[in-house]
Automatic annotation (TrEMBL):
Pfam families: Glucokinase (PF02685). This is ROK family protein. One of its GO terms (biological process) is glycolytic process. Keywords: Kinase, Transferase. It comes from Aliigemmobacter aestuarii. GO terms for molecular function: ATP binding; D-glucose binding; glucokinase activity. It comes from the Bacteria.
Length: 322
């Protein structure tokens, strides 16, 4: 398949859907984004072949962002039984240059290429584009990726910090940890800060109030909008835990270039974080409370940021290859 050097195929693979687009440099070609339900395909290779057939796309590069860990160029989806490697991308797209990123790494590569109107500021602070940054995803899962500028280009490190132990600051937090550990035998950060974590927080709050009940994450957000007391209490608990954990990660990575929240749950909470005490929990670091003013926190509201990040990463590879 003949390639066009300035074009690339980019894809964002979630647990339920995969979005594919054509990028012209850093810009997604208008009308090129298509969404495919993963359950209807045997694997990513089939989706990409379908996209190429439908669009007639002939591209020099192909890069995908996968919701799962990537090791030695191979991605294993966390919530989907797919394994993805470079050979699949070559076969499906005919692209000469291919790359596979963790979905949060793709968000990190998108920084600097996201329109200002798609960034919502939660905590204002200094802006140092050359300094380290931190992308934190709160959606189906929870994870973070530090972003570093180097003489050789941008480096976005992968992690699985959502599976670390949830922070415990009080007796109530300890009761919560014991409540959620029944799911996996260990109370992880993701168990309280991912979408299903929000659902567990509601169940915990309702049980503590003597009215055991369960709601989906979407139902909880709708109940918050209706000012339902249990939902509001759950929202405040979520914002406190999120603020505390984001603050912990800020002290670990020192992202003086800014902290960027992404993911469906983070976006859903954007309008509520200030009222629910996110900033106060973020700064609640004892003698380092004042130091926390060094970090700006924004929410990425661009639903296609991972696709842009894939294109940016391919551009960096191309420049390195000369």
């Amino acid at each position: 398949m003949a390639g066009t050097p300035h074009l690339s195929i980019v894809a964002d693979i979630g647990g339920t859907n995969t979005r594919v687009a054509i990028a012209e440099g850093m810009r997604l070609r208008e009308g090129s984004i298509r969404r495919y339900r993963n359950a209807e395909f045997a694997g990513l290779e089939t989706i990409l072949r379908t996209y190429v057939t439908e669009t007639g796309a002939a591209c020099e590069g192909a890069c995908v962002a996968a919701a799962g860990p990537v090791r030695d160029g191979v991605a294993e989806m966390t919530n989907l039984s797919w394994v993805i490697d470079g050979d699949q991308l070559h076969r499906a797209t005919g692209a000469r240059r291919v790359a596979i990123l963790n979905d949060l790494q793709a968000q990190g590569h998108a920084l600097g290429h996201i329109a200002p109107e798609n960034l919502a500021t939660v905590i204002d602070g200094p802006d140092d584009p050359a300094a380290a940054k931190l992308v934190i995803g709160a959606g189906t899962g929870f994870n973070a990726a530090p972003v570093h500028e180097t003489p050789w280009g941008r480096h976005v490190a992968a992690s699985e910090c959502g599976h670390a132990g949830m922070p415990v600051r009080s007796e109530s937090d300890l009761r919560l940890a014991r409540f959620v550990e029944t799911a996996h035998g260990f109370p992880g950060v993701e168990d309280v800060l991912a979408g299903r974590g929000l659902e567990r927080l509601y169940a915990f709050t309702a049980a503590a109030a003597g009215h055991p009940a369960e709601l989906t994450a979407a139902e909880i957000m709708a109940a918050i909008d209706r000012a339902d007391p249990l939902a509001l209490e759950t929202g405040r608990l979520y914002a406190r835990l999120l603020g505390g954990e984001v603050g912990n990660l800020a002290l670990i990575h020192l992202p003086f270039g800014g902290i960027y929240l992404c993911g469906g749950v983070a976006r859903a909470f954007t309008a509520h974080l200030s009222a629910f005490g996110f900033a106060e929990a973020f700064r609640d670091k004892g003698r380092f409370s004042g130091f926390m003013g060094n970090f700006r926190v924004q929410v990425i509201e661009d639903d296609y940021a991972a696709l842009i990040g894939c294109a940016a990463h391919l551009g960096q590879i191309a420049r390195a290859d000369g």
